[in-house]
Specification:
Layout (H helix, E strand, L loop, with lengths): L1 E2 L2 E2 L4 E3 L8 H10 L3 E3 L16 E3 L4 E4 L8 H11 L6 E6 L4 H13 L4 E5 L14 H14 L4 E5 L6 H10 L4 E4 L3 E3 L2 E2 L4 E2 L6 E5 L3 H14 L4 E4 L5 H10 L3 E4 L8 H16 L20
Parallel strand pairs: 3-4, 3-16, 4-7, 7-8, 8-9, 9-10, 10-15, 15-16
Antiparallel strand pairs: 1-2, 5-6, 6-14, 11-14, 12-13
Helix pairs in contact: 1-2, 2-3, 3-4, 4-5, 5-6, 6-7, 7-8
The structure holds flavin mononucleotide (FMN).
Flavin mononucleotide binds next to β6 and β14.
Length: 301
């Protein structure tokens, strides 16, 4: 399977921010069946993020978080990138953010120099100011185009579901030079403690992830597939191989796994093996044969 010229040994990719980014953890994930890893979002300088509680579990494998893009800053992270890169056949995607188009571009440039195979732009975190970029087609174009001009490796743009029409944002990113879109980041949400009468997370509003958001992710991938021609990487609420197939049918060429990893790494192997067993049983040879199949009915009479 390949996206933007990058070959992935499996269509399963670690989503940004879910696990620590120690090179040993990243290498273990490859052994469990991940074809690629996305680092947590890295900015120009070290950020501590919001106070606890910053993540809580809600009903039915659904989570609410506002970690505040805690990260070590790009200079402290360059060495980790080159260490993660030492694993054979593991695609390393570095997620980046900044406070201006130039800052985004500088972080992306340094990440590429350190060995990133691809850059993923986080313009979509709902509990950070970057969310103001990903809801505006013009800002999206400006930020993506500035980064595009600064780097030569593949550029992915991660989109927010917290918009009325995701196609406008996706098309702006494509026009500005993105090689692939990632859909979706977390859904803006709030939980209140009825005893203290206050929001539970220290930051208040957070991002919803896990099982509850899968239909939202599927809808956005389905809508994007009809309006852009670059590949789409599906993300949101994947816990089983059936969820991956649903994303492929909606239009995804690969998927990212996030919240399901709170249950350990065995789930990666289970999803991977069941997915390939399904493909074998149904006589599919490549993922691209599955991509977008849910759209074929639109052409039927
Ligand atoms: C604790 C936590 C931290 C996250 N941090 C980031 C981040 O740094 N950058 C980013 O682009 N997405 C981040 N995300 C969003 C995930 O990458 C993913 O888009 C989202 O969780 C939906 O997928 P899931 O339902 O499989 O978890 C974070 C999610 C969680 C739960």
């Amino acid at each position: 399977m390949s996206i933007a010229g990058l070959r992935f040994k499996s269509p399963l990719i670690l989503a940004s921010g879910i696990l620590g980014v120690s090179p040993s953890t990243m290498h273990i994930l490859a052994d469990y069946g991940m074809g690629g890893v996305t680092t947590k979002s890295i900015g120009p300088i070290k950020t501590n993020g919001y106070k606890n509680p910053s993540i809580i579990g809600l009903n039915n494998d659904t989570f609410l978080n506002a970690v505040g893009l805690a990260n070590p800053g790009i200079s402290a992270f360059e060495h980790e990138i080159s260490e993660i890169k030492t694993k054979e056949r593991l695609v390393v995607i570095v997620s980046v953010f900044g406070r201006s188009p130039q800052e985004f571009a500088n972080v992306a440039y340094l990440a590429e120099q350190a060995g990133a195979d691809a850059i993923e732009m986080n313009i979509s975190c709902p509990h950070d100011d970057v969310s103001t970029i990903g809801v505006d087609p013009n800002l999206t174009y400006k930020y993506v185009n500035t980064v595009r001009k600064r780097i030569s490796c593949p550029l992915f743009v991660k989109l927010t579901p917290n918009v009325t029409d995701i196609t406008k944002i996706g098309q702006s990113a494509e026009k500005a030079g993105a090689d692939a879109l990632v859909a979706i980041n977390t859904v803006s949400a709030l939980a209140i403690d009825i005893h203290t009468k206050r929001p539970i997370l220290s930051h208040g509003i957070g991002g919803l992830s896990g099982k509850a958001i899968k239909p939202i992710g599927i809808k956005h991938v389905y809508t994007l597939f009809k309006s852009v021609s670059i590949p789409i990487i599906g993300c949101g609420g994947i816990f089983a191989y059936e969820d991956v197939i649903e994303y492929f049918f909606a239009g995804a060429s690969a998927v990212q796994l996030g919240s399901c990893l709170y249950y350990g790494y065995d789930i990666i192997t289970k999803i991977h093996d069941n997915l390939f067993r399904y493909m074998e049983t149904h006589e599919y040879n490549t993922i691209s044969e599955l991509t977008g199949l849910a759209h074929t009915h639109e052409n039927e009479g």
